[in-house]
């Protein structure tokens, strides 16, 4: 298959988006039921109202802060656990079953436990994001560090790099960066989901709070208007990490 240029890919994406929105608008107008399916124009009008009132800006700022803190904690914890699992077979056999179970468990199923243990406050919401995001990071770190680049390690030692920590930082982590970023990209997407779950069920704040609030009032156009920036946030984060990943892969 012939490789397509970035301009062609972007053009196809725009055309696909226009077709999708046009079909949605026509279907909504034919259905004529705003509660079931609001039109694109109604959703954009609701989005404009949320922006003009400042409600959306405040909610986005709160959500982004929660996501940033959750991803930072997930990255640190995932790296430490992943490095431990990669370098110790005992740790691997001890921890792997539990983290595999955590990865397979829907985040929303853990919310009642988080509520009992940590309450409705900010720490509890961060824990929900961490539970959603930490496992992909841990698995990617473990996978990347387990494949030991022996040739690079030998070269580093010949240049005087000694000690396990120096080799870990100077050689193993850098060699594993593409794999680590792939895990972080997956974790970011799951983190956005965890953030929305935390805001919806632990505290009515942020974008998740807007979604639940307008959903309870059956204002479907405002629900879609609240979901849109949440989706764009996830796409933006994953795209940035993916771009960094591609640059590191080829350089």
TrEMBL record:
Membrane-related topology note: Multi-pass membrane protein
Positions of transmembrane segments: 12-31, 64-86, 98-120, 126-145, 175-202, 222-242
Domain ABC transmembrane type-1: 60-245
Predominant location category: membrane
Key words, A-Z: Cell membrane, Membrane, Transmembrane, Transmembrane helix, Transport
Top-level division of the source organism's lineage: Bacteria
One biological process term in Gene Ontology: transmembrane transport
Compartments it resides in: Cell membrane
Pfam families recorded: BPD_transp_1
One GO CC annotation: plasma membrane
Gene3D superfamilies documented for this protein: MetI-like
Family: Belongs to the binding-protein-dependent transport system permease family.
Name assigned to this protein: NitT/TauT family transport system permease protein
Organism: Roseivivax sediminis
